[in-house]
Amino acid sequence: MVEYLSCCGGEFSASHALLHKFGFGVIVALGLGAEQSDLALIGQIHIQTGPNAVRLNLVIRSLENRPRVEYVGGVGCMNRGLFEFKNWEQAAALQSRLAREIVEELPPRFRPRRVCGIDIAYRDDRGFAFGAIWDMESEIVVASSHISGKVEVGYVPGFLGFREGPMVVELARKIARSVDVFLVDGHGRAHPRRFGLACHVGLALQTPTIGVAKSLFYGREERGNIVGPDGQLLGKMVETEGRTLYVSVGNLVGLDDAVRIVRSCIVDRDCVPLREAHLGAVELRRAS
């Protein structure tokens, strides 16, 4: 359920915020009288409820060079500006700028249950995306969805978000109301500009998102950690039977919580939501 707040004048008003079901949301305007098409994402809100009042904790961020937002199914979401690709130099600069917007903590009192893994298989310039929703309590796949379409950006290491992000987000939006956390087959913070595919997707969806990769892309392995050249902790390694998963934050989740969630999804050495997503994407490609 998405809640709305409204107010008027210079105060923070109800029609200007979109609040997700777990009490975390996106400020899309702040009493500026903007038209919907002109709304700009300017911050995030945490909600604390008490016996007599609701307290809003605002984290206001700069409007400068921010992507616009649009309403999609009642949920605030960034438009294509987030995935705008002109050339590699522009794309790298956009990644570096957006990396500052990532939040590395779960929303308050958030207790995830349903985790969706998403993967894409390819044939030439056509992608086949599949999402599998795993219930961590019943330990079964409870739902799935898929889409296919043309991919506009070629594959270049470090820029996977521009290639896969739009399709992953389109699929995720179809099933977002049934999902608490998304797992993406790729890296998040473990990236040269701290903004891999999982960050791209997580920022677009404003939903907890985790990067789970099968190989190391950036940084070095050090006692179960992924460490950057400057010594910064970028991610953690999750060992299964004869296999290593490289886990890093996408958005709206802390690293320890990300590892805990991924471990909860492992059965017989596989991360089930991503395994089922991979098998589904391959079958979708085969059947096309």
Task: Give a structural overview.
By secondary structure, this protein is α+β, with helices and mostly antiparallel strands. It folds into 2 domains: 3-78, no CATH class; 114-287, archaeoglobus fulgidus dsm 4304 superfamily (archaeoglobus fulgidus dsm 4304 fold, 2-Layer Sandwich). Helices cover 22% and strands 34% of the residues. The chain has helices at residues 88-98, 160-175, 197-205, 255-264, 272-287, and strands at 3-5, 17-19, 24-27, 43-49, 54-60, 69-72, 75-78, 114-123, 126-135, 140-150, 181-184, 209-213, 220-222, 225-227, 233-240, 243-251, 266-267, 270-271. The strands form 4 sheets. Strands 10-9-8-11-12-16-15-14-13 form a 9-stranded mixed sheet, sandwiched between helices. The two termini are 36 Å apart. The relative contact order is 0.14. Residues 1-79 have low confidence and may be disordered.
| Overall geometric form | globular
Q: Round the Cα radius of gyration to an integer and report it.
A: 19 Å
The third-level CATH topology of the largest domain is: archaeoglobus fulgidus dsm 4304 fold
Separation, N- and C-terminal Cα atoms: 36 Å
Number of strands: 18
Strand proportion = 25-35%
Q: What's the pLDDT, averaged over the residues?
A: 79
The number of helical runs is 5
Q: For the report, how would you describe the main beta sheet? A: 9 strands, mixed
Secondary-structure class: alpha+beta
Instruction: Return the string of H and E elements.
Output: EEEEEEEHEEEHEHEEEEEHEEH
Percent helix, as a range, is 10-25%
Low-confidence stretches: 1-79
